[in-house]
Design brief:
about 475 residues, alpha/beta, Rossmann fold, pyruvate-formate lyase- activating enzyme, OB fold (Dihydrolipoamide Acetyltransferase, E2P), 3 domains, six-stranded parallel β-sheet, five-stranded mixed barrel, 21 strands, binds 5'-deoxyadenosine, binds iron/sulfur cluster
Length: about 475
């Protein structure tokens, strides 16, 4: 058994990782024959993409996908650590699964993802949730066949979590959720150590994939008719800094654009590593979408310093203006945390001022959540929960007013939209995303799904647009 260890996880040495190709023992290929699986995913796009790998691995082992967890033989939770409520959701789900397992002890239960990298969670799984059959971490997803086989054979709780990443795995099979949009990992982990964030511990040190592997994956997607790739990483701008040579994010973006994929997106960016060259490349290529997710976290330079963000409010605003000036029709979204330890009303006002100035196109806002083992967890915090929630409310009011304003500016314009799917609850039949990543609802034939078409914006809401199809392209 291997269990996570924060002291180990914190160690950051520049190592050249051993890159291996995913293989599994042929004798395991019927392990899941006649059985159904259900993977429940929490958290970010990284986790969603990991689940696409996990599903494909399970299908290689002979499992078939179940329609829901109530009708499956194997339930796997791919968990998220970022805030306390993500924890609560996963533990709540384990509670429901416990009842199912009391009725049917043969159900296999697995636990993976970021929470599996937390020491405290592993202790809880051992003590309070012994019915969980197997656990693996973010660094050894490829070990799933062996961990599962051991759990089935030993009939004991099998925990296999590496404290530190040991190798990089290529050619892990993938079952993509969409036929027209795909995620492509470009960099794993994060070395920024923002003081509130658990990611550098749960996802390990920054490791870039080799450009050849990334470009090969994108070329295959082009060949398979995909319309959009999203290049993924906790901090994509740091791409290449851990590799030999000077090949960086701007070079990768340019090469990915040149594969001819109709749409390229990337996320998430840290303002610290966002270079002028990146801005130039985004502006130059029509198929690099003018949509940048640029988390600011706070508008107070004092709080940014305490957060370990490495930029001031003014530096953020300078970068922001440069993007707005140089990238035509750019849409900029952000993340903001309120109630960071020591945040005063004046600090919070500075965040509101920044939001007023920037008029973001979209944003995710959060109340600070203490994460065990992070430096911010130990900071004195005198703001009450009530005050924090009140700040979140005021922040959201201001953010929402900005979203509506930016959406209203689009009314009457005809925009390129990648048709994503059918609307199940809305009056209009289809929805899609504009180049600026705005969701738009409109009526049209299902055959348009997966195509990029022209849609005229007829109305603006806070979080979406309404439109009418203008002309159909093949
Ligand atoms: N509390 C609240 N929000 C957090 N985030 C990261 N860590 C925390 C935390 N401890 C937010 C940041 C980040 C986004 C993915 O989640 O805003 O950009
Ligand atoms: Fe967390 Fe900061 Fe890394 Fe983002 S850049 S994953 S907020 S440590």
């Amino acid at each position: 058994m291997h269990v996570p260890n924060y002291q180990e996880a914190k160690k950051r040495e520049r190592v050249v990782f051993d890159i291996q190709k995913f293989v599994f023992d042929d004798s395991l290929k019927n392990l899941g024959k006649g059985k159904k699986y259900f993977v429940k995913t929490y958290g970010c796009q990284m986790n969603e993409h990991d689940s696409e790998n996990i599903q494909a691995i399970l299908e290689k082992l002979g499992f078939e996908e179940a329609s829901d967890y109530l009708h499956s033989d194997l339930i796997l939770l791919n968990t998220c650590s970022i805030r306390e409520n993500a924890h609560n959701k996963a533990f709540g789900m384990l509670g429901r699964i416990q009842h199912l397992k009391e009725e049917n002890p043969n159900i296999l239960v697995g636990f993976c993802g970021c929470m599996a990298q937390e020491e405290g969670v592993i202790q809880a799984l051992k003590k309070k949730y012994p019915f969980v059959n197997f656990v693996f971490g973010t660094h050894n997803l490829y070990d799933l066949p062996n961990v599962l086989a051991s759990a089935i054979e030993s009939k004991k709780q099998e925990i296999e979590v590496l404290a530190k990443e040991e190798k990089m795995m290529e050619d892990i099979p993938v079952k993509r959720a969409s036929k027209h949009k795909a995620y492509v990992n470009i960099i794993y982990g994060c070395d920024k150590f923002c003081t509130y964030c658990i990611v550098p511990y749960t996802r390990g040190s920054q490791r870039s994939r080799k450009k050849e592997d990334i470009l090969r994956e994108v070329e295959e997607l082009v060949h398979d008719g995909y319309q959009e790739v999203t290049l993924l990483g906790q901090n994509v701008n740091a791409y290449g800094k851990d590799l030999e040579g000077n090949y960086r994010m701007e070079n990768l973006l340019e090469d990915v654009a040149q594969t001819g994929i109709p749409r390229v997106r990337f996320m998430t960016s840290h303002p610290w590593d966002f270079t002028d060259q990146m801005i130039d490349v985004i502006a130059k290529y029509k198929n690099i979408m003018p949509a940048i997710h640029l988390p600011v976290q706070s508008g107070s330079t004092r709080i940014l310093k305490r957060m370990g963000r490495r930029y001031t409010k003014d530096e953020y605003l300078t970068l922001f203006s440069k993007m707005r000036e140089r990238i035509p029709n750019v849409s900029i979204s952000t993340d903001i945390i309120v109630g960071f330890p020591g945040e005063t009303e004046e600090d919070f006002q500075e965040t509101l001022d920044l939001v007023e100035t920037c008029q973001f196109d979209n944003a995710f806002s959060f109340v600070f959540s203490k994460r065990e083992g992070t430096p911010a967890c130990k900071l004195e915090d005198n703001t009450t929960e009530e005050e924090k929630n009140e700040r979140l409310y005021r922040l959201n009011e201001k953010l929402n007013a900005g979203f509506l304003k930016s959406n209203q500016k689009l009314v009457g314009k005809t925009l390129k939209v990648l048709v994503d799917g059918k609307n199940s609850t809305k009056k209009t039949s289809l929805y899609g995303y504009t180049e600026g990543n705005k969701m738009i609802n409109f009526d049209g034939d299902e055959s348009l799904i997966g195509k990029i078409i022209d849609v005229k914006v007829v109305d603006a809401k806070t979080w979406s647009l309404d439109g009418e199809v203008v002309c159909q392209k093949n």
